[in-house]
Write a structure and sequence with these properties.
Structural class: alpha+beta
Order of helices and strands: HHHHHEEEEHEHEEEHEEEHHHHHH
Number of strands: 11
Largest sheet: 11 strands, mixed
Amino acid sequence: MGTEGLLRFISVRLNEFLHRFAFALPPNRRELLWELVPGILASGRLRLSEIVRSRLDGPGALQGLEKHLSLQLASKHWDHQELAETVLADQARQVGEDTIVAIDFSELVKRYGRKLQYLDQVSDRSDPLKSVRPGYGLFQAYRVVRADQVFPLYLRLFSKWQPQFAGQNKLLDDELFHLRRQLQGRGIWDFDRGFDGGYSLKGLLTCQQPRWIVRMRGDRHLTDRTGQKQSVRDWAGHIRRNLPENRLAGGLSVRLPGDPRPLQLVTCRFRVPDEPEPWMLLTHGFDQVPYSPRRALTSYLRRWRAEDGIRLYKQHLGGETFMVQYFRAMQRLLLMGQLALTFLAELVEEDSTCVGQIEDAALHFGEPIKIRAYRVARGLQRLTAGRPFRVDRC
């Protein structure tokens, strides 16, 4: 199939995809989906100027269309929350009992932001020194199918300066209950070490999610069923010393200090490359058949291998480079980016001959791209380069 045929294939698929969500917007705002999502896919960016440029034949109307989209995104006269809930509900239907749901806090650093609404200070995790820079916090949840197949489930931008913000702990509580309600207890929730504090762990127990895994720091403390208190590192060493030779992973029944609810600490014999010691995982719901310590370890390994796919949002779409002034406009643009990534992930899952041809177009970039969603995204950019990409709403 030639380039024109591939573009028609993409247009038809994208039109069908956008119609699934259009009803969640007011009738006079639905065109935003057809104006923004194709432009994000074609440009690979969340910057309005580049989105608009990908839709026009020439530079003549660029400034006018950019201003129009900016005003639409910043408008006080419509609410994007119903669209966000519709996207979450759509993806939640695909979450099964054993689906990995990776949940994390991240940040969008705005190095040169000065006049952006509710601009906060965040720790830049991409900097080895973890420097504090202007930016916003980001709560994110992803559905992990495999290492190179990750679907954005839920994204929420936040700042301590936004109205009615009661702190990151309160936000975490609210969002955990929100996800618990939407997913109805399905999925295995996986968290990295930023969630190993007592407040976060008690919040997880309170929301009554059946199965979850939190990677622990070694200097945290837990008690066993007798009340003996030791560091996580010491308990993990105890597990490894008593592990039968034919077992790779083992567990121990533990409690949070001062909390009687049972948990299980899981560790293993080996450590992954670049890690100073074997993983120490605090788990809930892995202490009975068919779930086991080894299964908990395998579940976290799947989440760990999917980190590159999770980073696709910021790296490919330039999530830190978009420039709109108002906070609500940022949230809406991020939501449009989430829809674009979901469409990419669904194309990859479709795995048709046409998708393979789109991937082949990415070879132009001259270097191997391991994550398949990256290849499809780059192929789309290559196919639409130098020509306007518009999807007719029909």
